[in-house]
Structure formats: structure tokens, C-alpha cells
Specification:
The complex is a heterodimer.
Chain A lengths: L3 E4 L2 E4 L5 E7 L5 E7 L5 E8 L5 E2 L10 E5 L2 E6 L8 E10 L3 E5 L3 E5 L1
Parallel strand pairs in A: 2-11
Antiparallel strand pairs in A: 1-3, 3-8, 4-5, 4-9, 5-6, 7-8, 9-10, 9-11
Chain B lengths: L3 E3 L4 E4 L4 E7 L6 E7 L6 E6 L3 E5 L2 E6 L4 E6 L8 E9 L2 E7 L3 E6 L1
Parallel strand pairs in B: 2-11
Antiparallel strand pairs in B: 1-3, 3-8, 4-5, 4-9, 6-7, 7-8, 9-10, 9-11
The chains are: A mainly beta, B mainly beta.
Chain lengths: ~120, ~110
């Protein structure tokens, strides 16, 4: 399995501010993914982050709101910009590990509360 | 229609029971099927994955895929209180197996 570390694990933020979430992986991976899990809901893919290229966003998510960086093959950040209470969610980083079989692993998540 | 439908439960069973968790999906292009377990305040943990129709067994867990019916299942034998969690089916296809579409999740409680 892959070891994925996310920081911060949780935060309480004021509306109108921004929060940057970091994701560090213990080995090089080509593709990293960011998901959102709203309270009581399942996971929804926000975007795919490849090293050296712009992130690809899913329908309903835009770069201005969720800018993503992918400076190398083991690290990515997701920023939640100009936050509102509706952004209160768990944000999860995921990686695809390709080998004999391809598997997708998740970090522990960042629990964000916007007040 | 959602791409993946999963009965959210909640499901409550006695210890030792056989648990059946199910999902249906709509897009026949999906070709990679996973089950995750998520404990409260934790990230999803990959339990099982399979590419093809049929059964795959790992200890007390069996994943079953029927592509003709677009139906996937997870069976848990001899369920334990430690199995109490939310179980999520996840499906991928196409260019990346990391781009997952999740079901709503089923909350399972196994009581002693």
C-alpha cells in the first residue's frame, strides 16, 4: 500500500479566507487525486493532478475555487479559496499505484469547518 | 440516474451474521470495481478490488461482480463488531483507475 500524509488533519476557518491542504506520498506516483466528502455524503472527485501539467477538474469544480499544485511526483496541494460554510467537508488526497495490479489509496483526510 | 447506486442502510446485524452489501451501476464502460471501508473520522481503506466478473475471496470477505447485470456485491462472513463501519463501493473505467465514482456508502453495525 501507499503511505499518504495529509496536513492539516483538521481546521476551523473563517469565511472568506483560504486554506491550503498538503498531501505527501511515500513514493513517486504519476497521478494524484483530490476528493471531497460532504457531511453524511460519499466521496466526489474534485480534480486529477499530474506532475508538470495543469490539474483536470470535474464538472462543478473550478480552478479559481480549488487551485491545485503538483510540483513533483510525491507532493500536491489543494487550496480551498474564499471559503463559505458550504465548503465544510472532508477533503481527501488519493493516489493511483500501478504495479501488478492497479490500486487507489487514500489519505486520512482534512476535516474542514468554515464558520 | 446516479452512475452508482448503493443502499445507504443503515444495516444492523448480530455478531457472526453474513452481511451482504450491494451496488448497481449504469455505465457498462466501468471495468474496475473496489470496496472501501471507512471508519468514523478516518480515510477510506481499500478492502478489495477486482477487474472481472465472478467472485474474489480474501479471508472473510468475498467480492462479486456481475457485469451483465451491472451489479456488484461484498459479502462478509462471520461478521465481527470491528467490521462496524461505512462500506463504499467504487467503480472506475477508461483512462485511470484512480478516478473513482463512489456509491453513497452503507453504514454497517455489528452488535455483540
Amino acid at each position: 500500500s501507499a503511505v499518504i500524509s495529509q496536513k492539516p488533519s483538521r481546521d476551523i476557518c473563517q469565511r472568506g479566507t483560504s486554506l491550503t491542504i498538503q498531501c505527501q506520498v511515500d513514493s513517486q506516483v504519476t497521478m494524484m487525486f483530490w476528493y471531497r466528502q460532504q457531511p453524511g455524503q460519499s466521496l466526489t472527485l474534485i480534480a486529477t493532478a499530474n506532475q508538470g501539467s495543469e490539474a483536470t477538474y470535474e464538472s462543478g469544480f473550478v480552478i479559481d475555487k480549488f487551485p491545485i499544485s503538483r510540483p513533483n511526483l510525491t507532493f500536491s496541494t489543494l487550496t480551498v479559496s474564499n471559503m463559505s460554510p458550504e465548503d465544510s467537508s472532508i477533503y481527501l488526497c488519493s493516489v493511483e499505484r500501478q504495479g501488478r495490479d492497479t490500486e487507489a489509496f487514500f489519505g486520512q483526510g482534512t476535516r474542514l469547518t468554515v464558520v | 440516474q446516479k452512475e452508482v447506486e448503493q443502499d445507504p442502510g443503515p444495516l444492523s446485524v448480530p455478531e457472526g451474521a453474513i452481511v451482504s452489501l450491494n451496488c448497481t451501476y449504469s455505465n457498462s464502460a466501468f471495468q474496475y470495481f473496489m470496496w472501501y471501508r471507512q471508519y468514523s473520522r478516518k480515510g477510506p481503506e481499500l478492502l478489495m478490488y477486482t477487474y472481472s466478473s465472478g467472485n474474489k475471496e480474501d479471508g472473510r470477505f468475498t467480492a462479486q461482480v456481475d457485469k451483465s447485470s451491472k451489479y456488484i456485491s461484498l459479502f462478509i462472513r462471520d461478521s465481527q463488531p470491528s467490521d462496524s463501519a461505512t462500506y463504499l463501493c467504487a467503480i472506475a473505467g477508461g483512462t485511470s483507475y484512480g478516478k473513482l465514482t463512489f456509491g453513497q456508502g452503507t453504514i454497517l453495525t455489528v452488535h455483540p
